[in-house]
Amino acid sequence: MAPRPILSDEQERAEREDRARLRAIDAKLDALFRRRQELIAELRRISTEQKALFDQRQAPQDEVERLYEQHGVLGKKLATLRGEREAARKKVEEAVIRYRELKLTFAPGERVRPEQLRREIAELDLKQQTRALPLDEENALIDRLRQRTRELKDAEARASVVAEHERLRKEAEQSVAAARAEVERLGEALTLLKAERDATMAAVRAKLVAAGALLAELRSRSRARAEVAEKLDALGREMRELEREGRAVLGKSRARRDEARKMLRAYSRRREPSEDLLSSTAEAQLEELLKRGKITLGG
After folding, report:
1. Does some domain include residue 286?
2. Which of 27, 152, 273, 298 is most buried, taking the most CB atoms under 10 A from its CB?
3. pLDDT value at position 229?
4. pTM for this structure?
């Protein structure tokens, strides 16, 4: 192993400063490395949270799409029911018109039932027999009684026609009632379906709010991850700068030592060292070491 070259006092001072600087650089690099490991662990934690949030985001999105599709289907059903209700309302109007037209086709005499005429004749007869009326009123009562009697005979003769008219009237009334019931049924169905559609839209809004909150959390995690990554980049730059500085310090130290060795080799080539020269050189090295306090001589 080649002996350590002897450096001048100025070079030794530079060496000591370089070694102190290298120790400071090593300590700083150790601290930065520990900090780097902490940031890497934090970056991995945030990435794990991001992945978990991203996996959670898919379910609300699928639910929103399902509910939105269901809302569209309910909207189409509502439109269909509205059309059916409008058609039912038109049927009600048509049924009412037919009923009124049918009543207009009946003659006034045909609208009177024989039972009704018999009750009126009985009342008139009872009034004539139980009350003393002036002559003119009694004559009018008799005329009315005769007229109702003739109408009763005519009504009994047209009993089949009246019965047919009554059947048609009842059928018309039933048609009107059925059409109105259909309108009411469709109205109730529309109310229920509209409530279901509104509830579906409320569920869509709630899911969208939840998905928005999840997305906001994802963005927050992305910003936090970007900040940690930026810190890691800055720390890496600082570590590389310190490493470059350390290599430069080591390069200067090696250059000084190489220069000292070159000078020693050049001197050795010019002159073969005699025993006196070797002795004087050893004494000079010993004296230099004594000056630096490297060794002490015992008495």
Report:
1. no
2. 152
3. 92
4. 0.46
